Model the fold of this input.
Amino acid sequence: MRKIIVLFIALSFSFNCLAQGVIPKDIRNIGDQVDLDRMQAADGSRYINVKGSPYLTDVFVPATVYPDNDLFFVKYNAVDDEIEVKLSATKTIILDNSFKKYIIVFKESGETFTTLDDALNNKPAYFIDVKKTDNVSLYKKKTKDFIQATKATDNYSKDKPAHFSKLEEVFYIQLTPEGPAKLISKKKKSFLEMFKNNQNDIKNFIGDNKIKLTKEEDLIELISFINNLKK
Done:
């Protein structure tokens, strides 16, 4: 009976900590596994008097962070491509994915953010898993832009405050298991240029199946076809 009571108290404590946004000490150990000197303190002062939010969610939400394999409260900055982690009520850090490649699995949405090299910018970035295969894989990014404030140019226009753009989804392809993520062009010709050996097969598949390079469901179908070609 005493063991049941102790277990109940422990479970109640864990639930209350999660509900209040306070992470229990036994899972708040990312600082022991990650070099904090290589991290940057999260600083909201970068954006002052800006309309809207740079985040996917304005509140911290639970996610498992690998390779640390622990549960933390995090949020994603879609403007700066940063994962912020709440270590305590007063301390928040930004993961340095140039120092360590992270995988973040969000509990509520089920989305998995993976660190990959961005071929365009030649640096690590976070990409959301969409379709992973043996040879090629499909990812996407959810992005926002910071738009500077502008002054009225005449008596008929108005000042426009600084603001964040609407959320946009952009798709990427990884041509080899360890390769960088490459932006998928909306133009079929540019997309086909990535596949020198299978251009005709892929071109015919796109045409026969009316594939749109901006539509997630179509891209999943296309990636599966390309994966089979490369076997």
Remarks:
- Confidence is low (pLDDT under 50) at residues 1-41.
- The helical segments are 2-20, 30-33, 188-192, 199-208, 216-229.
- The chain has five helices and 13 strands.
- Residues 185-231 form one domain.
